[in-house]
Amino acid sequence: MRHRSLLIITTAVTAGALTLSACGSRDKSDSDSGGDNNKKTTVVIGVDAPLTGSLSALGQGIKNSVDLATKVANKNNEVPGVTFKIKAFDDQAVPSSGKQNATSMVDDDEIVAMVGPLNSGVSQSMQGVFAKADLAQISPANTNPELSQGPDWASGKKVRPFKTYFRTATTDVIQGRFAAQYYYKDAKKRKVFVVDDKQTYGAGLAKIFSQEFERLGGKVVGTDHLTVKETDFSGIAGKVKSSGADSVYFGGQYPEGGLLSDQVKQAGADVPIMGGDGIYDPAFIKASGTSNDGDLATSVGYPVEKLPSAKNFVKEYSAQGYKDPYAAYGGYSYDAGWAIVQAVKAVVQDNDGKLPDDARAKITEALAKVSFDGVTGKVSFDEYGDTTNKQLTVYKVTKGVWKDAVSRTFKD
Amino acid sequence: MHELPQTLVNGLTLGALYGLIAIGYTMVYGIVQLINFAHGEIFMVGGFGALTIYLWLPSGTALSLALPLMLVGGVIASVGIATAAERFAYRPLRGGPRLAPLITAIGLSIALQQAVWAFYPDADQPRSFPQFEGKSLEILSNLHIQRGDVFLLIAAPLCMLALGLFVSKSRAGRAMQATAQDPDTAKLMGINTDRIIVMAFAIGGAFAAVAALAHGLKYGQISFEMGFIAGLKAFTAAVLGGIGNIYGAMLGGVVLGIVEALAIKYIQDIPGMEQLGGGAWKDVWAFTLLIVVLLVRPQGLLGERVADRA
């Protein structure tokens, strides 16, 4: 009998632990849904991003920026009779969690459109769910071209797979080629070692970069792949050194990118590492130890701090006192949220000041026609749902902070 | 071939890290035939224990001065969690069906991860860990050793030496061997086997704390999820070396680390194997080796007994 009761206690503790882990993610999303005005129609914008885990620095920035867009819309009474709210879901950068969240959003009648997610791989699992429900999705951060142009985009056969998918971020095609042009033309690098993390985003970006770098006349002296969530890349670092490369390109995210940069330098190879927007985060510098001055990252758009249109955003964001900074995608998330606000506005105006019954489908249609001056510049979408904004910036680590080095509009 | 020494050193340091963690699996298994899947999390908690001490010390304290205190902090955290786990999660189930403690171990592992995630400040993303300032040490023209690895390369053999002496020479160590051979007879001979089991968990925890400190110094960050992959690799190392044998655990760790390093570097140079080399395939080669070793020597490299009770 003694054993049985103890077994029950142990089981209960284990079950408790599992519940605890479930609660952890739930109470974070609940805390954001505090509506105040019941007389108006409440329109909820879903947000999906990694709010916990190693990518949470970016995810929290996305969530807060969309939240800010709704607050500003409410304050300005942007759409009379409508109060905006967000409901945040945590995908932990895991595709299956993303799919689950997508299903929850579709089932929630209050949600009319959503912003997110961060990761291209997560987006792939969500697109289909949203398309069936006519729920518009705007990602502030997905850069994989397949998401909007179909799997055969590279051979020129561009087909938009999901009419509900939009994004405010430029694609890897532009970002990877932009990075290659910078390395070859501006930094005068000729021998590059390419590493990727085998994920949708990282591998795609690395491939596009390599093709463009070779097209320009550079040489890819070696390639390797690392595994997400591992920490020891000294083997790859050793290969970088022995290959004689004068630069490294990394397709992946900052947790691994930071460690890789550190270990490449520890191996005695004094070469810069360049990556995409996935490594453009303060956590990259924090993760990569002491010696990463000179490392580079491309990111979509001009630096938010430098755009006159963004001054207000930065001011409002700090006034709200959010715990986390807006990070790399804050501006794009705000613009994504604002695009939804504008679409709702158009739909409500067409329907005598009320939200129609098929609001989701109408908003999706309206999004295609949205055009306004946002935080990151002109916001509008082309026939694939991609942003028409092709501005990019190269950032460089200088004395332990990201400083913008070059900003320009991408040219073929 | 001039990069071979560097590759071997990389493998050796990584392997020593695996080996230190593997000690915890192998000690516990040797005595109670339990695979303590929560051991990876005990390793992780040790890292956070050491970090807590560092943050508590006045800022600007030299890392070399802080190191002993951080080690003490890490050991207290790891040993505390390991012995508490033994007392409250495993001991009540001793004598019960074999699967019960195993499932408990998995549950405990999730609980510890989530507890650190929820309650340690800012632990929901990787926390940066202090590192020694400066570039890596250049031993030879083509051989660099990271400053953090020096600690690991000194601590790992010292710990092994101390453990070897303890087990073979001291009274408690011999009592431990006796308990491993036959717990019932050991009890008849007047050995307090409960105490011996606690001791096995405590030693495993202390080794995990040393490993966690080395991990932090080596990579400059710790996170609540780091125990999973480290634990999995260490468990593999323990099986490879012969689970139940402490020297086997260290040997298994070093072999595993070196095979991974060599696989990254050299497999793709073999004609026709370009696609199967590099970082993406290193685990495949490590586990291929594990399977081959277990086919030839089911008891592992240094295993003495075929596990008849597990």
Descriptive overview:
The complex is a heterodimer of chains A (412) and B (310). Chain A is α/β, with parallel strands linked by helices. Chain A is built from 13 helices and 14 strands. By secondary structure, chain B is mainly alpha-helical. Chain B has helices spanning 4-32, 39-56, 63-90, 99-119, 147-169, 171-181, 183-188, 193-219, 226-241, 246-266, 282-296; strands spanning 127-128, 137-140, 143-145, 221-222. Chain B has a two-stranded antiparallel ribbon. Chain B has a two-stranded antiparallel ribbon with strand order 2-3. In chain B, α2 (39-56) packs parallel to α4 (99-119). The radius of gyration of chain B is 20 Å and the shape is globular. At the A-B interface, α1, β7, α8, α9 and α10 of A face α1, α4, α9 and α10 of B. Chain B: It is found in: Cell membrane. Chain B: GO terms for molecular function: L-isoleucine transmembrane transporter activity; L-leucine transmembrane transporter activity; L-phenylalanine transmembrane transporter activity; L-valine transmembrane transporter activity. Chain B: Belongs to the binding-protein-dependent transport system permease family. LivHM subfamily. Chain B: Keywords: Amino-acid transport, Cell inner membrane, Cell membrane, Membrane, Transmembrane, Transmembrane helix, Transport.
Radius of gyration of chain A: 22 Å
Question: How would a crystallographer describe the biggest sheet of chain B?
Answer: 2 strands, antiparallel
- Multimeric state of these chains? heterodimer
> Architecture of the largest domain in chain A, according to CATH?
3-Layer(aba) Sandwich
Q: How many individual β-strands of chain A? A: 14
Distance between the termini of chain B: 44 Å
The first-to-last residue Cα distance of chain A is 77 Å
Which CATH class of chain B is shown?
Mainly Alpha
**Beta-strand share of residues of chain B:** under 5%
The gyration radius over C-alpha positions of chain B equals 20 Å
User: Helical residue percent of chain A?
Assistant: 40-55%
CATH class of the largest domain in chain A: Alpha Beta
| Poorly predicted tracts of residues of chain A | 19-38
Number of domains of chain B: 1
CATH superfamily of the largest domain in chain A: Response regulator
Number of helices of chain B: 11
The coarse overall form of chain A would be elongated
Structural class of chain A: alpha/beta
What is the CATH topology classification name of the largest domain in chain A?
A: Rossmann fold
Structural class of chain B: mainly alpha
- Main beta-sheet strand count, sense and barrel state of chain A: 7 strands, mixed
